[in-house]
Amino acid sequence: MNKEILKYAKDEDLDLKHSVDALSYAAIKTANLFSDIEPMKVIKFMLCNEPIGGFTHSYGFHTRDGRAMREFFGTKYYEYGK
């Protein structure tokens, strides 16, 4: 998954300053909690705010589930390596 994240960051011209291992770990954990979501969709939502169907956005704003996903992802990202 790390290669996919790096390719996505390059394709989107992102200056990625985050740990790719931690991003991958958090995306997988988040995708497992919010079932039927692929980890790369989580990465795209977190890095570029790309909507995941009607799940994360409504009228351009984050839904309750979208905010919960961001919070959970952040927790798992900072948990990585402890």
Molecular structure report:
By secondary structure, this protein is mainly alpha-helical. It has one domain. Helix content is 61%, strand content 5%. The chain has a two-stranded antiparallel sheet. β1 and β2 (61-62) form a beta hairpin. α2 packs across α4 (64-79). The longest helix has 16 residues, at 64-79. The radius of gyration is 12 Å and the shape is globular.
Assign the structural class, choosing from mainly alpha, mainly beta, alpha/beta, alpha+beta, or little secondary structure.
mainly alpha
Number of strands: 2
List SSEs in N-to-C order. Answer: HHHEEH
Low-confidence stretches: none
What about the largest sheet? 2 strands, antiparallel
From the spread of the alpha carbons, the general shape counts as globular
- The figure for the number of domains is 1
Q: End-to-end distance, in Å?
A: 21 Å
What do the pLDDT scores average to? 94
Report the β-strand fraction as a percent range. under 5%
Within the largest sheet, what's the order of strands? 1-2
Helix content: 55-70%
Q: From the alpha carbons, calculate the radius of gyration and give it in angstroms.
A: 12 Å
Give the helix tally: 4
Task: Please summarize what this structure is.
The protein has helices spanning 2-11, 20-33, 39-48, 64-79; strands at 57-58, 61-62.
